[in-house]
TrEMBL record:
Protein's name according to its UniProt entry: MFS transporter
InterPro entries in the cross-refs: MFS (IPR011701), MFS_trans_sf (IPR036259)
Membrane as UniProt keyword: yes
Keyword terms: Membrane, Transmembrane, Transmembrane helix
């Protein structure tokens, strides 16, 4: 892992920390509006993201880090809107926030994954999610106490990060490096498997990474406790994603890398709504499993046309969030449907991936 990779990881940590703090802060400020409103906040964010996330990956292959810089700048402007405008405007602002995030983070993922060879893709994606899941720790903790004035400061910091990205002028184009991984058969699922997996993980992401998780836990706990529970879950997910993907993707190149999180995540999610006594444990375990699953899909997206595959993964996950958010907005009783849909789609993704075993990767060309 070279200096460029590490610089991009630091930027991912700082940028996502601030962006997610803005999301969580506004969610906590409006928690009294109830489950349906918070579900709509999640839905509008996903609507914005899906409009831009696919094109972001493709555009990054041509324009490099300028794409991420643009997205981060628009997130900063959205933060100013949160700070000065009334809560009634949060739904349209959430669409803009999602649109900007769909530009910024898939672009940054494309740059991160393109900066390493395929033989390190599992570790690279895991380190990316270690950084961004660590960002959730601060986002949930700070978000539970942030006020509108602090959102102005957050926006100013995002502008500085956007300027750094513009100055770096990172480009896509790094091929797999020569070494002990050269000539090894890669497990490279087809685009259809990535798309179905993204859709499935989108349903589960909705439960633990967005406003819906606040609504679920907010029924039983205070804001600070919610932040702590979700922060611990993020830390566990970060560690799991690195330890597991380093072995299953980089070393073993096995289809089990996709099967295991596809099954474990929806099964774990049932704990969220089975009983109030298990809801916090369910969020924690599901959060860890989602981190593992998302990291797996991002790592497996590193192949030919990385930008396109990363964009496909993100846009599919956004579609899952949109569908899932509207299902969840009908009430907490609808949450089991999300688990069932995720389970079926996850198995379909794994089934499609089996026919790609042994596909020739970049480093064999």
């Amino acid at each position: 892992m070279d200096n460029k990779f590490l610089t991009l990881i630091v930027i991912a940590f700082l940028g996502t920390t601030i962006s997610r703090t803005l999301r969580m802060g506004t969610a906590f400020l409006t928690i009294s509006e109830g489950f349906s409103f918070l579900s709509l906040l999640a839905a509008t964010f996903a609507i914005g993201r899906i409009l831009s996330s696919y094109l972001s990956g493709i555009s990054t292959e041509k324009y490099g880090s300028k794409v991420a810089s643009l997205g981060i700048s628009v997130i900063a402007l959205t933060g100013l809107g949160y700070a000065v405008l009334p809560a009634v405007t949060y739904l349209p602002l959430r669409i803009l926030h999602g649109l900007a995030s769909g530009i910024a983070w898939p672009s940054l993922q494309t740059l991160v994954m393109s900066s390493v060879g395929e033989e390190k893709r599992g570790r690279a994606s895991s380190l990316y999610f270690i950084a961004t899941n660590s960002a959730w720790i601060l986002a949930f903790l700070i978000g539970s106490i942030i006020d509108r004035n602090a959102m102005v400061v957050s926006s100013a910091l995002l502008i500085l990060i956007a300027l750094v990205m513009l100055k770096l002028d990172v480009r896509v184009g790094v091929k797999a490096k020569k070494g002990k991984g050269k000539g090894k058969k890669r497990f490279v699922p087809p685009n259809e498997a990535i798309a179905l997996g993204g859709l499935a993980v989108g349903f589960m992401t909705l439960l633990v990474n967005t406003e819906v998780a606040i609504a679920v836990l907010g029924l039983e706990f205070e804001k600070t406790v919610i932040g702590i529970v979700l922060a611990v879950a993020a830390l566990i997910g970060a560690v799991v994603s690195y330890l597991v993907n380093r072995k299953l993707i980089d070393y073993l190149e096995t289809h089990l890398s996709l099967l295991l999180p596809s099954v474990a995540t929806p099964v774990a999610s049932t704990l969220i709504y089975v009983s109030p006594m298990t809801s916090s444990v369910g969020v924690l375990v599901t959060k860890a499993a989602v981190s593992w699953w998302r990291s797996t899909l991002l790592g497996l997206s590193r192949a030919q046309e990385t930008g396109k595959r990363v964009g496909l993964f993100n846009s599919s996950a956004d579609a899952g969030r949109i569908i899932g958010a509207f299902i969840a907005s009908q009430g907490a009783a609808m949450l089991p449907i999300l688990s069932a849909l995720s389970f079926v789609l996850g198995l379909a993704s794994w089934t499609l991936s089996l026919k790609s075993r042994g596909e020739v990767s970049e480093d064999k060309k």
